C-alpha cells in the first residue's frame, strides 16, 4: 500500500556539514547545523527533529540535540551533484533535474548591455551593480534610492540578479514588471541566470529599512521534465507552499500558497494537512536562508529552528496513517562561516509516517538529491528518469 499524501518540507539552507566537493566552492569547514548548535552551547531545543533522528544523521551530534534511541523515523543525508549551490539547483535536482552546466555568475557586476536595456525599459538609472549583501546594500544605498528612484541592482556568489526598491518609491507591481523584463534578458545563450529576484523594502531610513514578504523569484523555466510534471500528468494533486512555485516557474503545480514567513508557511502546511487530496505537497521555508544565513546570524538561525520544531510537533500530531513526511534542505548557508553566500553542504534527510513499517534505519548518504524525487514517484507507481528510490526502506 502506498502513501496517499506525501509532504516534503525543505528547510532552506539548513546544511549538515561540508559536502565531499566543498573544496571546489571554497566551503571546506562549513557546517550550518553544527555551528548553530555550538553557538547555542547545548541550549538548542529541537525535540521533534531530534526524535525523528536529526543528530543520528551525523558522526558528531549537534550540540544540545540528542541522538534518538530509537529514532521515530528513518534518517540519512543527501549530496548534491548540480554545478551550483543555489535554491534552484537544489530543488530542481530533488525533482530529478540536476543543473549540470554552471549558470552565469557576475563577480564584477552585470555587462553594460544588460544594464542599458534594463535602464531603458524601466526609465530609471541602475546603481551598485556588483556583489553585495542584501541587507547591507539597502543600508548603504536605500536612502539614495528613495531620493532618486534609481534601481538597486546587485548579485551574490550565486546565479542571481536582484533588484531592490523601496515600496513607497517603486510600487511592488512596477518592480515585478521590471524583474519580468530582466528575466527575458538572461535566458541564454549569452547569459543564463538562475533567478531574478524582486527585493522590495520599507522603512524611513537606513537604520530602519527591512525587506518585505513581497519578495518574488522569477526563475529560469525548467529545462526538462521534472517529477512534478510526472505527478501532475498522472492526475495527482501537486501543491506548492512558499517559493517552490517560483523556483519551477509554476510548472507542475496544481495549487499554490505564498508564504509571508516560516510561520505563515507552517500555517499553510497545516491547512493542506486538513485538505482531502491525493498527491504531493512541496514546501520551502526560506527564513533560515534569507533572514539569518546570509546575515551570518547564528542566534536568529537557531531561534528559527526552534520555532519550526514547535510547529513540527503540530504536523506530527495531525498526520494521518497514509501520510508521509520528508524533511530536507536545498543547500547550506552557515551563519558561522565566512562571507555571506550559500555553502556547499550535505543536507539532512528525515522520513516519517505513523504507519511506516520499519523505523530507526539509516538511509545512508544519498549520492544525489534526485533520490528524493525518485522515491516520491515510486510511491505513486511512477518511474523516475534519474535517482535511486529509497521507498522500500520507508514504505508502509
UniProtKB/TrEMBL annotation:
<keyword id="KW-0479">Metal-binding</keyword>
<protein>
    <recommendedName>
        <fullName>Phosphopentomutase</fullName>
        <ecNumber>5.4.2.7</ecNumber>
    </recommendedName>
</protein>
<dbReference type="GO" id="GO:0006018">
    <property type="term" value="P:2-deoxyribose 1-phosphate catabolic process"/>
</dbReference>
<feature type="binding site">
    <location>
        <position position="342"/>
    </location>
    <ligand>
        <name>Mn(2+) 2</name>
    </ligand>
</feature>
<dbReference type="GO" id="GO:0005829">
    <property type="term" value="C:cytosol"/>
</dbReference>
<feature type="binding site">
    <location>
        <position position="12"/>
    </location>
    <ligand>
        <name>Mn(2+) 1</name>
    </ligand>
</feature>
<comment type="function">
    <text>Isomerase that catalyzes the conversion of deoxy-ribose 1-phosphate (dRib-1-P) and ribose 1-phosphate (Rib-1-P) to deoxy-ribose 5-phosphate (dRib-5-P) and ribose 5-phosphate (Rib-5-P), respectively.</text>
</comment>
<comment type="pathway">
    <text>Carbohydrate degradation; 2-deoxy-D-ribose 1-phosphate degradation; D-glyceraldehyde 3-phosphate and acetaldehyde from 2-deoxy-alpha-D-ribose 1-phosphate: step 1/2.</text>
</comment>
<dbReference type="GO" id="GO:0009117">
    <property type="term" value="P:nucleotide metabolic process"/>
</dbReference>
<dbReference type="GO" id="GO:0008973">
    <property type="term" value="F:phosphopentomutase activity"/>
</dbReference>
<dbReference type="GO" id="GO:0043094">
    <property type="term" value="P:metabolic compound salvage"/>
</dbReference>
<feature type="binding site">
    <location>
        <position position="331"/>
    </location>
    <ligand>
        <name>Mn(2+) 1</name>
    </ligand>
</feature>
<keyword id="KW-0464">Manganese</keyword>
<dbReference type="InterPro" id="IPR010045">
    <property type="entry name" value="DeoB"/>
</dbReference>
<dbReference type="InterPro" id="IPR024052">
    <property type="entry name" value="Phosphopentomutase_DeoB_cap_sf"/>
</dbReference>
<comment type="similarity">
    <text>Belongs to the phosphopentomutase family.</text>
</comment>
<dbReference type="GO" id="GO:0006015">
    <property type="term" value="P:5-phosphoribose 1-diphosphate biosynthetic process"/>
</dbReference>
<feature type="binding site">
    <location>
        <position position="294"/>
    </location>
    <ligand>
        <name>Mn(2+) 2</name>
    </ligand>
</feature>
<dbReference type="GO" id="GO:0030145">
    <property type="term" value="F:manganese ion binding"/>
</dbReference>
<keyword id="KW-0413">Isomerase</keyword>
<feature type="binding site">
    <location>
        <position position="330"/>
    </location>
    <ligand>
        <name>Mn(2+) 1</name>
    </ligand>
</feature>
<feature type="domain" description="Metalloenzyme">
    <location>
        <begin position="4"/>
        <end position="383"/>
    </location>
</feature>
<dbReference type="InterPro" id="IPR017850">
    <property type="entry name" value="Alkaline_phosphatase_core_sf"/>
</dbReference>
<dbReference type="Pfam" id="PF01676">
    <property type="entry name" value="Metalloenzyme"/>
</dbReference>
<dbReference type="GO" id="GO:0000287">
    <property type="term" value="F:magnesium ion binding"/>
</dbReference>
<keyword id="KW-0963">Cytoplasm</keyword>
<feature type="binding site">
    <location>
        <position position="289"/>
    </location>
    <ligand>
        <name>Mn(2+) 2</name>
    </ligand>
</feature>
<dbReference type="InterPro" id="IPR006124">
    <property type="entry name" value="Metalloenzyme"/>
</dbReference>
Amino acid at each position: 500500500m502506498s502513501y496517499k499524501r506525501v509532504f516534503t518540507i525543505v528547510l532552506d539552507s539548513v546544511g549538515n556539514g561540508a559536502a565531499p566537493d566543498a573544496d571546489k566552492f571554497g566551503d571546506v569547514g562549513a557546517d550550518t547545523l553544527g555551528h548553530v548548535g555550538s553557538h547555542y552551547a547545548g541550549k538548542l531545543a529541537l525535540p521533534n527533529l531530534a526524535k525523528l533522528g536529526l543528530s543520528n544523521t551525523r558522526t558528531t551530534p549537534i550540540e544540545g540535540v540528542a541522538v534518538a534511541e530509537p529514532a521515530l523515523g528513518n534518517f540519512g543525508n543527501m549530496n548534491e551533484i548540480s554545478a551550483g549551490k543555489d535554491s534552484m539547483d537544489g530543488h530542481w535536482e530533488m525533482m530529478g533535474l540536476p543543473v549540470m552546466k554552471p549558470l552565469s555568475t557576475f563577480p564584477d557586476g552585470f555587462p553594460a548591455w544588460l544594464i542599458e536595456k534594463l535602464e531603458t525599459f524601466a526609465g530609471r538609472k541602475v546603481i551598485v551593480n556588483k556583489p553585495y549583501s542584501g541587507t547591507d546594500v539597502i543600508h548603504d544605498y536605500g536612502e539614495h534610492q528613495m531620493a532618486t528612484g534609481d534601481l538597486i541592482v546587485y548579485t551574490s556568489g550565486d546565479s542571481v540578479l536582484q533588484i531592490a526598491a523601496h515600496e513607497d518609491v517603486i510600487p511592488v507591481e512596477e518592480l515585478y514588471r521590471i524583474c519580468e523584463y530582466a528575466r527575458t534578458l538572461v535566458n541564454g545563450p549569452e547569459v543564463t541566470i538562475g533567478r531574478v529576484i524582486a527585493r522590495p523594502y520599507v522603512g524611513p531610513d537606513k537604520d530602519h529599512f527591512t525587506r518585505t514578504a513581497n519578495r518574488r523569484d522569477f526563475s529560469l523555466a525548467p529545462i526538462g521534465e521534472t517529477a512534478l510534471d510526472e505527478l501532475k500528468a498522472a492526475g495527482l494533486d501537486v501543491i506548492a507552499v512558499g517559493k517552490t512555485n517560483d523556483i519551477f516557474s509554476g510548472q507542475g503545480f496544481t495549487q499554490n500558497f505564498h508564504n509571508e514567513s516560516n510561520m505563515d508557511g507552517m500555517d499553510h502546511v497545516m491547512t493542506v494537512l486538513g485538505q482531502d487530496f491525493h498527491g504531493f505537497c512541496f514546501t520551502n521555508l526560506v527564513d533560515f536562508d534569507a533572514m539569518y544565513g546570509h546575515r551570518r546570524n547564528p542566534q536568529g538561525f537557531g531561534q528559527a529552528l526552534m520555532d519550526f520544531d514547535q510547529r513540527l510537533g503540530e504536523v506530527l500530531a495531525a498526520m494521518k496513517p497514509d501520510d508521509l513526511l520528508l524533511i530536507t534542505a536545498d543547500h547550506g548557508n552557515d551563519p558561522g562561516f565566512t562571507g555571506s553566500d550559500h555553502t556547499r553542504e550535505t543536507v539532512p534527510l528525515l522520513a516519517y509516517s505513523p504507519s511506516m513499517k520499519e523505523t530507526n534505519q539509516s538511509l545512508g548518504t544519498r549520492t544525489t538529491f534526485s533520490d528524493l524525487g525518485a522515491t516520491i514517484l515510486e510511491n505513486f507507481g511512477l518511474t523516475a528518469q534519474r535517482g535511486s528510490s529509497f521507498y522500500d526502506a520507508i514504505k508502509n
